[in-house]
Write a structure and sequence with these properties.
Elements (H helix, E strand, L loop, with lengths): L3 H14 L9 H12 L4 H5 L2 E8 L9 E8 L3 E6 L4 E5 L9 E7 L2 H8 L6 H4 L9 H14 L3 H23 L4 H19 L8 H14 L8 H31 L8 H11 L6 E2 L6 E2 L10 H8 L4 H4 L8 E5 L11 E3 H13 L17 H18 L1 H11 L4 H11 L1 H13 L4 H11 L5 H13 L3 H14 L1 H17 L8 H11 L4 H8 L7 H12 L21 H15 L23 H12 L12 H18 L20 H4 L2 E7 L6 H10 L6 H13 L7 E8 L6 E8 L9 E10 L2 E10 L2 H8 L2 H9 L7 E10 L1
Parallel strand pairs: 4-5, 10-12
Antiparallel strand pairs: 1-2, 1-5, 2-3, 3-4, 6-7, 8-9, 11-12, 11-15, 13-14, 13-15
Helix pairs in contact: 6-7, 8-9, 9-10, 11-12, 12-14, 15-16, 16-17, 16-18, 17-18, 17-19, 18-19, 19-21, 20-21, 21-22, 22-23, 23-25, 24-26, 25-27, 26-27, 30-31
């Protein structure tokens, strides 16, 4: 929490700001609720060991912030913990072959001591102890914590936690749901969570359909009145009841199919293949690839070996049979992320999978898709009619003519149609694509069609591409054309690519951070030609920050290595030019170390796990380290003073090699205070501001006043609040770095201001925060919302971790990074 004063004020004003509706829950009703909860099947909450988790996704660079729960089981390879949000999660230990899931360790805590520490700060419950909320609020988790206390004979603690839960759920839930009792509220919420998690587990192939069915039936037993709690609950219960016969039918078919597979089988006919693959769609394991967005049935990790991909590859031969499943309501294992939707919008039905397969076969986007899990009669009539009309058209005109007409339209569907023509009917492709380019409705369709032509190598295509390299109305089409020209005329293509880069720099119409910059820079770098790097370096430091960011980013990630099968403009440079190429890369990055402007990617760099918006000079130094690790020592995760020192050392490496005067290297910070002088070690000794934007007057004045003061989490929080309140037009981001090196040498506060447009989509506010003590991450995450109040709620928990960090020994290093981004 930010301060005792803030807590006192909150406690005094809370009665004025909120009101708990309805009557407080009686002791008798509380006991009934606990008895009901015990019947749900979470014995570890009452009797399991209480543990603190240090866990992360398999393969992640660092752990998530510590979370807590009840140990359900453990062996030498894995352990399972039930969190206070009732999520049961298995964590692997000693399983290097695992590529998905969580890995981590745990330590057993004294439950009584831990609970006593939580009592003064229950408002932070949802953020400080529950990771991955899973549709449960902090108040819901408080009920679980209260039950755990009661089961361990901690009556006073249980009462205090329950009273907090009781008032909170009545305050928040009554207004929105109309439920009058705590019992109704908690049973409604736990029922929602139970149902959601039951069907969510369909995404896991190891969870069998009989297990899902058993859990659905358990739901009806534990929540007999669920439908009476509201319209949403009634709708979800209707979905669950309708799911029972669907699951029962699928289970019977599984048994029959397994028996059939014991007999010799052979796919002698296409029809046999199609029927078997349609059956296997029940285990198609696609997922939602972006947020917001829908389920992508082809995102199955089996790739082209998944049933959906195989059906799409069979093409028109599969269509007659697929049409019989346009209203099929069987479940697949393809699910949406689902947190923002009800359970009835979670699972893709087999008809939804068929829709997407037919989209791929037809090379067109279906325009009347109501919902990929929709039932017959729920808006599918228009969609089915659209599919059937396309099929009749194919039968009447033939696939070739349908594709030619679709490509010639130049609309959104022209890309897929053009690719199919090039693949199957290449003799008809050029004429159709030429017509499509004249009719192109947008730049996306145009560039996609030009790119499809790169797969052809006819004289007419070569002539056309030579013209496109110089005259296409968009830059990316010119790049694609240069790839074709380079097959026969490497020098012309290479010079053409340089000309395209010069046009990109001069184009006033080029959108900031447009992907064009990335494509052009990448195509130049993968040639391996030193003159390409020289062209990129020319006047680079005088260009817009977004252009500099993209060039440095490609070099930092070493994306000058071609992708597998990628066509290189003019062909790869001879190996004899490799040394000159790397020297040119080195020179460009050294020159960018002079640039302290913020980079426009805004914490999107892959250079490290650092948060915030590091300036270009730091990104360039990190890129030098990535390309020449034994020559240029630099770590982007170090504190600012350490990075300044490392960057000076890097520059002197270059200067010494080129007989240039050396610059002064900042001295390594020394401890100015004794080990017990914690106040001095928390004193702000330096405040700096970098970036081209002028700060709002009150915000700037507040920064100056902080110099020489003792840092507190409230001071940082107030600084961020003031920045948000005074946000100026044209400003895109503010990064705040607070650092103390080893030895307790005081606090440095740095503010980085950015007016460079960001690559993020959408509008609203975004934050990213990171807290480290002695190089170990203690907290950090990010949040995004269109409204500041929700951002504020999402970051409040962070300040509790900051308070803890500020009590660390004065000799410990300390690093806090907080970025605030506004997208318009």
């Amino acid at each position: 929490m930010r301060s005792k004063l803030a807590l006192l004020i909150a406690a005094m004003t809370l009665p004025l700001m909120s009101f708990a509706y309805g009557q407080a829950t009686s002791n008798e009703e509380r006991t009934k609720l606990f008895t009901w909860f015990d019947s749900l099947g979470y014995p570890e909450v009452s009797s399991g060991k209480f543990v603190e988790l240090d866990a992360k996704f398999v393969g992640a660079k660092q752990s998530e912030r510590p979370t807590f729960g009840f140990l359900q089981s453990a062996n030498s390879h894995q352990f399972t913990v039930t969190g206070l949000n009732l999520y049961r999660t298995t964590y692997y230990s000693g399983h290097p072959e695992k590529t998905r899931g969580y890995e981590g360790t745990f330590k057993v805590l004294d439950f009584t001591t831990w609970v006593n520490k939580q009592l003064p700060k229950l408002e932070f419950l949802s953020y400080s102890i529950v990771a991955g909320m899973g549709r449960m609020s902090g108040a819901d988790s408080a009920f679980v914590l209260s039950r755990a206390c009661a089961a361990r004979s901690l009556g006073d603690q249980s009462s205090k936690v329950f009273d907090y839960f009781d008032s909170k759920v009545r305050e928040e839930s009554y207004v929105f749901t109309g439920k009058k009792t705590t019992s109704e509220i908690i049973k409604s919420k736990f029922g929602e969570v139970t149902l959601f998690r039951t069907f969510s587990d369909l995404r896991d192939p190891s969870v069998s359909r009989p297990e899902i069915l058993a859990r659905v039936n358990d739901f009806f037993r534990h929540y007999p009145d669920y439908a009476s709690y509201g319209e949403n609950q009634a709708r979800e219960e209707e979905f669950a009841r309708a799911a029972v016969p669907v699951l029962e039918k699928m289970i019977r078919e599984d048994v029959e199919q397994n028996a059939r597979k014991l007999k010799p089988q052979s796919w002698f006919t296409v029809q046999g293949q199609v029927l078997d693959l349609i059956y296997e769609l029940r285990d198609q394991n696609g997922f939602q690839t972006m947020e917001p967005g829908g389920i992508d049935v082809f995102a199955d990790r089996r790739g082209e070996n998944s049933p959906a991909a195989k059906l799409a590859k069979l093409g028109l031969a599969a269509v007659p049979t697929l049409l019989n499943y346009l209203n099929d309501v069987e479940f697949t294992r393809s699910l949406s992320n689902g947190e923002r939707y009800g359970v009835d919008h979670l699972v893709m039905r087999r008809c939804g999978a068929v829709d997407q397969i037919l989209e791929r076969i037809s090379c067109r986007h279906l325009h009347n898709v109501p919902d990929y899990n929709a039932k017959p009669g729920q808006g599918r009539e228009a969609l089915n009619s659209e599919i059937e009309s396309w099929w009749k058209e194919v039968q009447s005109k033939g696939e070739r003519q349908v594709l030619v007409e679709a490509t010639s339209e130049g609309d959104y569907d022209a890309q897929a149609s053009a690719e199919r023509l090039v693949e199957v009917y290449p003799d008809a492709a050029f004429a159709a694509i030429s017509s499509g380019l004249k009719n192109a409705k947008n730049e996306y369709s145009r560039t996609a069609m030009v790119n499809s032509l790169t797969k052809l190598n006819t004289p007419e295509v070569k002539k056309f591409m030579r013209d496109q390299m110089q005259n296409a109305p968009d830059l990316i089409s010119r790049v694609y054309a240069a790839r074709v020209v380079g097959r026969d005329d490497p020098n012309t293509a290479v010079h053409g690519l340089v000309d395209i880069w010069e046009q990109a720099k001069k184009s006033a119409a080029l959108p900031p951070n447009a992907w064009e910059i990335s494509v052009i820079a990448h195509d130049m770098l993968v040639t391996g030609r030193p003159e390409m790097v020289d062209a990129l370096a020319k006047d680079l430091t005088s260009l817009a920050p977004n252009i500099q960011s993209q060039v440095v980013f490609w070099l930092s990630a070493r994306f000058y290595t071609p992708y597998k099968g990628e066509e290189i403009v003019g062909g790869a440079a001879p190996k004899s030019e490799k040394n000159a190429f790397m020297k040119a890369v080195e020179a460009l990055l050294v020159s960018e170390m002079e640039n302290s402007n913020p980079q426009s990617n805004h914490w999107e760099t892959d250079l490290s796990d650092s948060s915030g918006n590091p300036p270009l000079n730091d990104v360039a130094a990190a890129a030098l380290n990535a390309n020449f690790p034994n020559k240029y020592p630099f770590n982007l995760t170090d504190t600012k003073r350490e990075r300044d020192r490392e960057r000076a050392i890097c520059e002197n490496v270059w200067r010494r090699e080129h007989d240039l005067p050396l610059i002064q290297v900042p001295a390594k910070p020394l401890s100015l205070f004794g080990p017990n002088q914690t106040v001095a070690a928390l004193t702000i000794t330096s405040v700096t501001v970098s970036g081209k934007r002028d700060l709002a007057p009150e915000f700037a004045a507040g920064l100056v006043k902080l110099n020489g003061t003792v840092i507190t989490s409230k001071a940082i929080y107030d600084l961020i609040e003031k920045a948000q309140a005074e946000w100026g037009s044209g400003l895109s981001g503010i990064g705040i770095e607070l650092e103390r090196d080893h030895g307790g040498s005081g606090i440095t506060l740095s503010v980085i201001v950015s007016d460079a447009p960001t690559r993020n989509f959408g509008t609203g506010w975004s934050t990213n925060m990171s807290l480290k003590v002695d190089g170990v991450t203690k907290d950090g995450n990010g949040s995004t919302s269109s409204e500041w109040k929700w951002i504020k709620l999402g970051v409040d928990h962070f300040w509790e971790s900051v308070d803890k960090a500020l009590t660390s020994p004065s000799s410990a290093s300390l690093e806090l990074r907080f970025s605030l981004l506004h997208r318009v």
